[in-house]
């Protein structure tokens, strides 16, 4: 209960309408249950109590479902626009058989724009993080690489951001789930393993900020 209260407090800070939606989601089933109890109970106290209890339980369930969805959106809102936000969603927010990695497959060290990859029943999804004008070329390059390795696997290009043609961060999992299913589960695993085996490590040393990294100078002789 303490953890749920903390989640509710966090959600309310970033989404003021969440508490009212939860209240509406709770009261609607309670009122329906009360109405059915008075209509079908016919003066039977036990039957009336059952309908009321059923309405309360349904109201609690709906309120918790609303809290879960709104809490997820609030969590995404806190990291949206930050480098690595797409990776965080791919690591913990994917469902429906999609597999993603929090590490990007391509990074622009100057702008911190990045391209991520996910594999699922809908094929391969390439997801850019950054303005469309800067990431379009990166997406096209990665699409050509996938097409050369797996020519028969469909590739979906997705841009995350606020530009025209982009989607907001919290819509990424739903967008992936809506892609047309063309691969079986064994094929998803085979495609993922194939791409991971060919993926080379990004030239970013651990513990080094790419925005502050300086080229090494040759030794004087």
Automatic annotation (TrEMBL):
<feature type="transmembrane region" description="Helical">
    <location>
        <begin position="46"/>
        <end position="67"/>
    </location>
</feature>
<keyword id="KW-1133">Transmembrane helix</keyword>
<dbReference type="Pfam" id="PF13829">
    <property type="entry name" value="DUF4191"/>
</dbReference>
<keyword id="KW-0812">Transmembrane</keyword>
<keyword id="KW-0472">Membrane</keyword>
<feature type="transmembrane region" description="Helical">
    <location>
        <begin position="20"/>
        <end position="40"/>
    </location>
</feature>
<protein>
    <submittedName>
        <fullName>Uncharacterized protein DUF4191</fullName>
    </submittedName>
</protein>
<dbReference type="InterPro" id="IPR025445">
    <property type="entry name" value="DUF4191"/>
</dbReference>
């Amino acid at each position: 209960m303490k953890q749920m209260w903390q989640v509710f407090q966090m959600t309310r800070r970033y989404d003021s309408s969440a508490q009212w939606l939860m209240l509406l989601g709770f009261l609607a089933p309670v009122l329906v249950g009360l109405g059915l109890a008075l209509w079908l109970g016919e003066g039977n106290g036990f039957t009336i109590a059952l309908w009321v209890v059923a309405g309360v339980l349904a109201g609690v369930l709906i309120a918790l479902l609303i809290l879960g969805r709104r809490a997820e959106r609030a969590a995404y809102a806190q990291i949206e626009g930050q480098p690595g936000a797409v990776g965080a969603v791919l690591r913990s927010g994917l469902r429906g058989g999609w597999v993603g990695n929090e590490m990007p497959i391509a990074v622009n060290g100057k702008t911190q724009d990045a391209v991520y990859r996910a594999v699922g029943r809908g094929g391969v999804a390439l997801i850019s993080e950054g303005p469309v004008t800067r990431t379009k070329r990166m997406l096209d390059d990665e699409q050509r690489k996938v097409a050369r390795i797996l020519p028969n696997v469909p590739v979906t290009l997705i841009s995350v951001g606020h530009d025209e043609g982009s989607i907001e961060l919290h819509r990424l999992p739903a967008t992936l789930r809506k892609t047309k299913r063309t691969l079986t589960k064994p094929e998803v695993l085979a495609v993922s393993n194939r791409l991971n085996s060919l993926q080379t490590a990004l030239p970013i040393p651990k513990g080094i900020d790419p925005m502050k990294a300086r080229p090494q100078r040759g030794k004087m002789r």
